Amino acid sequence: MHIFVPLRHANRRWFSDMIQFILNQTLIETNKPPGLTLLDFVRYEAHLCGTKIGCREGDCGACTVLIGALHGGEMQYQSATSCLTPLANVHGRHVVTVEGLNLPGKRLNRAQEAMVQHSATQCGFCTPGFVVSLCGYALNVQKADAAGAVGAIDGNICRCTGYKSIERAAGDLALHLEKKDAAHALPWLVSERFLPDYFTGIPERLSQLNNKDRKLHSGHTPIGGGTDLYVQKHHEIPDMELQFMARQKPADAILFDENSCTLTAQATATDLMEAAPLSEAVPGWRQFLKLVSSTPIRNIGTVAGNIANASPIGDLSIMLLAVGARLTLVDESLSTEREIALDGLYLDYKKLDKTPAEIIRRIRFDIPRKGQFFNFEKVCKRQYLDIASVNTALLVTVENEKITTARCSIGGVAPIPKYLRETSRFLEGRSLSAETVRQALAVLQTEISPISDVRGTAEYKHLLAKQLFCAHFVELFPQTIKMEDLL
Ligand SMILES: Cc1cc2nc3c(=O)[nH]c(=O)nc-3n(C[C@H](O)[C@H](O)[C@H](O)COP(=O)(O)OP(=O)(O)OC[C@H]3O[C@@H](n4cnc5c(N)ncnc54)[C@H](O)[C@@H]3O)c2cc1C
Ligand code: FES
Ligand code: FES
Known about the structure:
Layout: E1 2-5, E2 19-23, E3 26-30, H1 38-45, E4 64-71, E5 74-81, E6 94-96, H2 110-117, H3 127-140, H4 146-152, H5 163-177, H6 185-191, H7 202-210, E7 221-223, H8 229-233, E8 242-244, E9 254-256, E10 260-264, H9 269-274, H10 276-281, H11 285-290, H12 295-300, H13 303-309, H14 315-322, E11 326-331, E12 336-341, E13 346-348, E14 351-352, E15 359-366, E16 372-379, E17 390-399, E18 402-411, E19 418-419, H15 421-427, H16 434-447, H17 458-476
Helix pairs in contact: 2-5, 4-5, 15-16, 16-17
The structure holds flavin-adenine dinucleotide and FE2/S2 (inorganic) cluster (2 copies).
Residues 53-56, 58-63, 81, 83 line the site of one FE2/S2 (inorganic) cluster.
């Protein structure tokens, strides 16, 4: 099937080419505004109402869809919140809604069946989102287990069933997926009733579609995944002139050489989390990244967007400040390019050392080497899917029980994601001991200026800053430094 969805608004002057993608089994060609949310397209243009509208802020997961891209002949699917996804970002992709997961003859697929068998649904409003996330897990997983399946639904909220039955359904699926034939994943998932059989024809159809490239006129406002921008400017975005930074993401959005890591503007938090060289270099790396938003938000939210948004509690900014990241800023209108240190970017609340026309093209940092230790701490009102009250990261080099280099950053205690320049400098050259950490705490308190807000009082944040700074050393050097010696 092939659907053409025509333009209704006369004032959409800034784009002329069609956005093309496959929606379930149907080829879509549309000249709808590229900043329209995928959710609005799916529900109001394609009339697929299984995808629900809950919060429109990425919190509830009722609008979850799968977005599949062809990389090296293989399909890679990820869950995404369609309420925060610009239509332009699915050009050349396969978009799967819950309707596209139905098996012929009204038979239930495995995820739907597991939800029914475990009584994991009541009003049913959230259920399509859960089913889509679980099918996304089935598509992606290499080595299934119950924890991983439950992790895949970390972006889905249910207000009436209670999570135990949903977790049991996820666990059941994981058991079945232990037998997954990774070498022939799609045919296996089809034969085992996880997916309808049209999925096997999608790579071929998409490869033909991808040949038809689309040029979007570049607007002024960069947009990556849209997970910050849509929350702030939901109504304005379809009418804004946008520069789509994350569309047509290459397979290698994150690149490594022997010592360093380079992220392109399209690299997402998931790319950072899945990067094997970083997991090898930093114990606990994946766990740190799991504290950032939820699976569908990490799948679409870019690292560059986190940095440019300049939230004083941006988790990725805080981590990247500690590893000493450097940014390449490009102004295409002036054909200029310059490199700056991330710790020089933030001048004041949402005030950056960059012109509005400069975009972040690349982010580069050295991979922590042997003898270097990295830790990230975050306290929020909920453990997962919440922004931080205070977050902090530390990278130290220790040689012969001496701290030779230190970089510490902290969020939620200043108008900017704060690089603790004085505290870091103080640590360098001192012995790795409880006494050094106690003295450094005094320096830290002079560098921060928290205010009382919904995330906590100024006094509470002072306390959190102190405890989380100590936690870095206790976590990294439990033999040498104990919490009772610090507080
Ligand atoms: C439910 C939910 C939970 C969240 N939880 C967390 C969390 O736990 N921790 C956290 O840190 N964040 C969290 N966020 C915020 C957000 O997901 C991240 O900040 C994300 O990394 C933003 O990336 P993006 O690509 O979606 O940004 P966008 O929304 O596309 O853009 C954000 C800003 O960056 C600008 N921009 C984008 N790309 C570029 C570029 N290449 N160059 C210059 N400017 C650019 C845009 O113009 C905009 O001003 C959450 C968001 C949601 C909706
Ligand atoms: S509608 Fe709630 S996450 Fe999209
Ligand atoms: S079943 Fe009602 S919200 Fe989940």
